[in-house]
Design a protein that fits this description.
- The structure is a single chain.
- The chain is an all-alpha fold.
- The chain has one domain (about 5-65).
- About 50% of the residues lie in helices and about 0% in strands.
- It contains three helices and no strands.
- It has helices spanning about 10-15, 20-40, 55-60.
- α2 (about 20-40) packs antiparallel against α3.
- The longest helix is centred in the middle third of the chain and has 23 residues, at about 20-40.
- The two termini are about 20 Å apart.
Length: about 80
């Protein structure tokens, strides 16, 4: 199950067919992807797309997960 079947982070929270832990896994994956996109945008490689990281972090916060897991923790470095 990936975040690609959801249009926005709030859709993950609204999906009652998955557990809280599954929601967290999906949102964390989405957050890592969004963070990578932000890095690419900072390096002028991402074009005009917006990463949506803020919305993902808000959704994670609603599940009681802090954004600290992202600090210095990327797919490449982490």
């Amino acid at each position: 199950m990936t975040h690609h079947q959801y249009n926005q982070p709030q859709d993950v929270l609204a999906d009652s067919s998955i557990t809280r832990d599954e929601q967290i896994v999906i949102l964390k994956s989405w957050a890592y992807d969004a963070r990578d996109m932000e890095v690419a945008e900072e390096e002028n490689m991402g074009g005009e797309r917006k990463s949506g990281l803020r919305d993902v972090l808000i959704a994670l916060n609603e599940l009681g997960v802090s954004e600290e897991f992202l600090q210095g923790n990327t797919k490449q470095g982490g």
